[in-house]
Automatic annotation (TrEMBL):
Pfam families: Aldo_ket_red. GO terms for cellular component: cytoplasm. Residues 328-347 are annotated as: Disordered. Residues 329-341 have a biased composition (Polar residues). One of its GO terms (molecular function) is oxidoreductase activity. Keywords: NADP, Oxidoreductase. Belongs to the aldo/keto reductase family. It comes from Ananas comosus. This is Probable aldo-keto reductase 2. The keyword Secreted does not apply. Residues 30-316 form the NADP-dependent oxidoreductase domain. InterPro entries: Aldo-Keto_reductase, NAD(P)_OxRdtase_dom_sf, NADP_OxRdtase_dom.
Length: 347
């Protein structure tokens, strides 16, 4: 039977990329604690959850300045007080900002530096372990943005550089300026766009892969029932895959995954997460949650073993997924470099 709790389940360590960063083999996406998935959750509860994660061995924490905006970084800063900072690998991001109430993507060097300084202050740290460009600014050559990030590494403000949802060609150009340690992208049983060219490019260059939304934005945790618990402020209310015209088909996918999980003695979320883990030793999924019991269950996925036949069976179920990743109205967040990858971001 798969582990339902983190008690006694060792979280292995892994090398992320080829520049020396070592992280827990599963991370914690912190976005939903503060933004996009309904109202912010109680601060004390989230601090307790983050510290529980670290004590359990999940030490790779993921946030961004746009989550809130800003409030998620402040939350992490509070959770990392009292000596906790030294026990974690801290990742945050820059690049999406609000200008006069309008979402904008910016990779200008002056902005990069100002964003980094502001994140350091909110997080209450003197160095960020992994600093991602959250979205590529197609108006600014990636070499220019990377030049400023390279300076921040040299100054000791950041240790490693990452990109989020960049195209294969941009990854190559960026990596030529300064080694990229990790590329973050949406990768799950039902979101596999990146496998065509982005994943192979990362592997060719020795870049680690961080998979956000590995549970299909929570769908593989409870299936269509998840809609009953979503607040009106939850982004997923507008997600095409959660809409009635697509939900009937997608609910069948969940049923089949659930049936297979029952055969294996694990939960459907553990099974879906295990599928991501089995993509390779260079892949680190970062499922998000706001509940300790769900966190414990996610850690249990590390104990679930899948055969190649079981992997293929799962993929055959999910091949029928209906609906785009994002609503058409979120086009302002789309990454024009990779039109098949919308650019609204969430772990």
């Amino acid at each position: 039977m798969a582990a339902e709790s983190s008690a006694g389940a060792a979280v292995r360590r892994m090398r992320l990329g080829s520049q020396g960063l070592e992280v827990s083999a599963q991370g914690l996406g912190c976005m939903g604690m503060s933004a996009f998935y309904g109202p912010p959750k109680p601060e004390a509860d989230m601090v307790a959850l983050i510290r529980h994660a670290v004590r359990s061995g999940v030490t790779f924490l993921d946030t961004s300045d746009v989550y809130g905006p800003f409030t998620n970084e402040i939350l992490l800063g509070k959770a990392l007080e009292d000596g906790m900072r030294q026990k974690v690998e801290l990742a945050t991001k820059f690049g999406i900002r609000y200008s006069n109430g309008v979402r904008d993507i910016c990779g200008d060097p002056a902005y990069v530096r100002a964003a980094c300084d502001a994140s350091l202050q909110r997080l209450g740290v003197d160095c960020i372990d992994l600093y991602y460009q959250h979205r590529v600014d197609t108006r600014v050559p990636i070499e220019v943005t990377m030049g400023e990030l390279k300076k921040l590494v040299e100054e000791g403000k950041i240790k490693y550089i990452g990109l989020s949802e960049a195209s294969a060609s941009t990854i190559r150009r960026a990596h030529a300026v300064h080694p990229i340690t990790a590329v973050q992208l949406e990768w799950s049983l039902w979101t596999r766009d990146a496998e065509e060219d982005i994943i192979p490019t990362c592997r060719e260059l020795g870049i680690g892969i961080v998979a956000y939304s590995p549970l299909g934005r929570g769908f593989f945790s409870s299936g269509p029932k998840i809609l009953e618990s979503l607040s009106e402020r939850d982004f997923r209310k507008t997600n095409p895959r959660f809409q009635p015209e697509n939900l009937e088909t997608n609910a069948l996918i969940f049923e089949r995954v659930n049936e297979m999980a029952a055969r294996k003695g694990c939960t459907p979320s553990q099974l879906a997460l295990a599928w991501v883990h089995h993509q390779g030793s260079d892949v680190c999924p970062i499922p998000g949650t706001t509940k300790i019991e769900n966190f414990n269950q996610n850690v249990g996925a590390l104990s679930v073993k899948l055969t190649p036949q079981e992997m293929a069976e799962l993929e055959s179920y999910a091949a029928a997924v209906k609906g785009d990743r994002y609503p058409s109205g979120m086009s302002t967040w789309r990454n024009s470099e990779t039109p098949h990858l919308s650019s609204w971001k969430g772990e």
